[in-house]
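Quick one, tokens below:
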């Protein structure tokens, strides 16, 4: 198992300014390298307090690259639906060079109606735009004199500069929420996978991972080279009651921001997002205790969280990479530092 940190902002300007948030996040990224974590990851979102402080993960990860030497940098994820592939492929290749080959590129489809509306793009086109964007980037990295005649973009012949530091291109991962076909397609292509187990049952995650691993092997890709990222909210303290109380408060803060971001689904329907309309009208009850009992959030003392990770390893295998959301909601940065230090000192050694 490998472990990294996920810095997906769920914070509002009245809680922390942009400057304060980036300063604190860079501090956590530097600490992650010092403590031996494998990666730093961040998202692409716009406008809302659910991710809105990260409209361009490449900018933040470039700052991380300049302050670190070993830790891997992961986009979790960039959204090709909102970018021209020539621009997206170029800036990611630039980051790969700046970091001397430490970049893993996670691609996602996007799912917030307000973002599609602002960019003037139909949600019904998201799957086709995603597939086209990923393949166009892959070809721009791997080939020269690329001509592209897609549904949404046409260009070429062009040769991307700079060429990626990693040849033929950085590791590609794709984000999937609930779609087994996406997992199978990622395995066939030899891409990695990014999932959030908290929104699925253990059985459904196991089923999707099985499809992914079988497709990866059937396509003849290098055994053991696949990368599976599973993301979890995480909060540790020496005292169990303190961890529960503060971890629950942080989760509630972040949950309220997510609820605001997905509210647009109450009036949105898309054939490309079957069932997502339920997000706009889902019950706003407190599910924290249920999620804690089901190991969908990692909260408690170091010993308790180690037990949770043992269960997760038993469910999903020891070849997974766990992305830990250590800065949730508006929590003080010192609490994130404590969580990371307790993880590094008393939890992760049991799994490395």
């Amino acid at each position: 198992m490998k472990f990294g940190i996920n810095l997906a902002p769920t914070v509002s300007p009245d809680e922390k300014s942009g400057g304060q948030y980036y300063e604190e996040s860079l501090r956590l990224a530097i600490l992650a390298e010092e403590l031996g974590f494998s990666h730093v990851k961040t998202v692409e979102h716009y406008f809302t307090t659910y991710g809105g402080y990260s409209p361009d993960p490449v900018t933040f990860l470039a700052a991380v690259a300049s302050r670190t030497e070993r830790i891997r940098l992961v986009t979790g994820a960039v959204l090709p639906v909102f970018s021209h592939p020539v621009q997206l492929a170029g800036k990611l290749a630039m980051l790969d060079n700046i970091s001397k080959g430490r970049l893993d590129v996670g691609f996602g489809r996007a799912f917030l109606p307000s973002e599609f509306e602002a960019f003037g793009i139909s949600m019904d086109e998201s799957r086709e735009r995603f597939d086209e964007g990923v393949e166009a980037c892959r070809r721009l990295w791997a080939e020269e004199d690329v001509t592209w005649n897609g549904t949404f973009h046409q260009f070429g012949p062009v040769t991307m500069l700079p060429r990626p530091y990693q040849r033929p291109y950085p590791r590609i991962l794709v984000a999937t929420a609930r779609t087994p076909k996406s997992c199978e397609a990622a395995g066939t292509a030899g891409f990695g996978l990014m999932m959030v187990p908290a929104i699925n049952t253990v059985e459904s995650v196991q089923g999707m991972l099985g499809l992914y691993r079988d497709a990866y092997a059937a396509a003849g890709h290098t055994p053991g080279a696949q990368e599976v990222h599973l993301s979890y909210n995480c909060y540790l303290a020496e005292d169990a009651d303190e961890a529960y109380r503060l971890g629950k408060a942080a989760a509630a803060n972040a949950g309220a921001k997510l609820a605001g971001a997905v509210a647009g689904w109450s009036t949105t329907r898309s054939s490309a997002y079957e069932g997502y309309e339920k997000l706009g009208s889902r019950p706003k009850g407190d599910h924290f205790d249920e999620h804690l009992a089901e190991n969908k959030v990692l909260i408690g003392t170091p010993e308790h969280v180690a037990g949770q990770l043992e269960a997760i390893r038993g469910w999903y295998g020891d070849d997974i990479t766990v992305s830990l959301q250590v800065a949730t909601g508006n929590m003080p940065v010192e609490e994130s530092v404590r969580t990371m230090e307790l993880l590094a000192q008393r939890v992760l050694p049991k799994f490395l």
